[in-house]
Amino acid sequence: MYIKMATLANGQADNASLSTNGLGSSPGSAGHMNGLSHSPGNPSTIPMKDHDAIKLFIGQIPRNLDEKDLKPLFEEFGKIYELTVLKDRFTGMHKGCAFLTYCERESALKAQSALHEQKTLPGMNRPIQVKPADSESRGEDRKLFVGMLNKQQSEDDVRRLFEAFGNIEECTILRGPDGNSKGCAFVKYSSHAEAQAAINALHGSQTMPGASSSLVVKFADTDKERTMRRMQQMAGQMGMFNPMAIPFGAYGAYAQALMQQQAALMASVAQGGYLNPMAAFAAAQMQQMAALNMNGLAAAPMTPTSGGSTPPGITAPAVPSIPSPIGVNGFTGLPPQANGQPAAEAVFANGIHPYPAQSPTAADPLQQAYAGVQPYAGPAYPAAYGQISQAFPQPPPMIPQQQREGPEGCNLLIYHLPQEFGDAELMQMFLPFGFVSFDNPASAQTAIQAMNGFQIGMKRLKVQLKRPKDANRPY
DNA sequence: TGCGATT
């Protein structure tokens, strides 16, 4: 844990640090352990595949069919090199689809033409899909997303609409679990130019009956955009902090620090075994997303007040939303509290160096009192948390029984909080920096650097280390 | 206003 936190502290200054965490994609690395066809034992029987073999995506598979059930169906087109049913990474649940590689390219082509949309497996209401996996084609630049369709329109209707602009390789209406159209579709052309021509001709060109606005025709999300979108959806579902609610241009330090810290925190907790599958998934997504952001995707210039355009899938609220509880670590409650918010509150984190605040508006006197209400995870907490990341004995301790001031040099003072800011908000905002588990000096630094000057509405926070007690009484 | 069941 402490190692991770050290990494985070560095990451704050060095955006590249997350790119070394092994999150990179590994195309074609799907292990053969799940594969079907490799004969154990005699090496001479290990199948070889053509260099130009095609990995096929198989969709619309009943969930009660596993590799051995599927094998006979596909074997008639050639020798199978690998067949893997896709399963949920955490729950192991059959996802209703598979990847299939034949030893020979020709077999794949035969299977595709014989099976794709040609038959429907028992229990399915849509025909089987047999087509090159996305990883084979790299076709994002010729795939269109079509929105604002009439929900009655079929694949054929959409094809007719788009066929004049090029050769359509794939046309799929997006449907909900009930099979009803979601009013949108993917259309993949053979070339980027064809796709662009369709956009030029069709986007906004007409309004389908029942649609709320004119036809949308645009390039489909890239991998990165898709990851971001999923991340956002999941964060929303879980009621978690939503990193994308905060525009990176304006709040880069905060967002990055949060994301990195949350990713590390959740990952280490996950290793300890406390996280439920959803949260573990969230952790993985979070890491992926942090990595993506480090690569600059979300670094597009935009601020709440700039009036700039918003990239697809990213919302830019006028006021940054306040992170809500993470929902891990057992931190579901909040400390007891005296209400009536002062303009400044002392907040305890675990840090060391004195750090001069540099807010331009920092004329406020210190006599604003450290009145408050300190959500502080006492000394017992870090130790207990340390266990978690190692072996995972007990769940993390809950909220501390009583308010306590942290060691000297570890307490932050926050000025210019909004009136409506209560402990809950305060705690949520600062929790990632120190309340939970981090007792190294870098945490306080991270929090200060990320949060000092952070704008909430019309105000800018002032965050600095609380002065030692004796230094606080100049008179 | 909706981006697939894709290692």
Brief sketch in words of this structure:
Pfam families: RRM_1. The chain is about 30% helix and about 15% strand.
Can you characterise this structure?
Keywords: Cytoplasm, mRNA processing, Nucleus, Repeat, RNA-binding. This is CUGBP Elav-like family member 4 isoform X38. It is found in: Cytoplasm; Nucleus. The protein is α+β, with helices and mostly antiparallel strands. The strands form 4 sheets. It has a 4-stranded antiparallel β-sheet. A 4-stranded antiparallel β-sheet has the order 6-7-5-8, with helices on one face. Strand 11 (455-456) and strand 12 (459-460) form a beta hairpin. 30% of the residues lie in helices and 15% in strands. The chain binds one DNA strand of 7 nucleotides through residues 26-31, 34, 55, 57, 59-61, 84, 86, 95-99, 129, 133-135, 145-149, 172, 174-175, 181-186, 212-213, 216, 218, 220-221, 225-226, 229, 312-313.
Percent helix, as a range, is 25-40%
Rg, alpha carbons: 27 Å
Spatial strand order of the main sheet = 2-3-1-4
Overall pLDDT, averaged? 63
Instruction: Tell me the overall shape.
Output: extended
Q: Which consecutive residue ranges, at least 5 long each, have pLDDT under 50?
A: 1-44, 242-251, 268-278, 294-404, 434-438, 471-475
The total of beta strands comes to 13
Q: Secondary-structure element sequence?
A: HEHEEHEHEHEEHEHHHEHEHHEEE
The major pleated sheet works out as:
4 strands, antiparallel
Strand content bin:
5-15%
Structural class per helix/strand content? alpha+beta
Measure the end-to-end span: 43 Å
By DSSP (H or I, 4+ residues per run), the number of helices equals 12
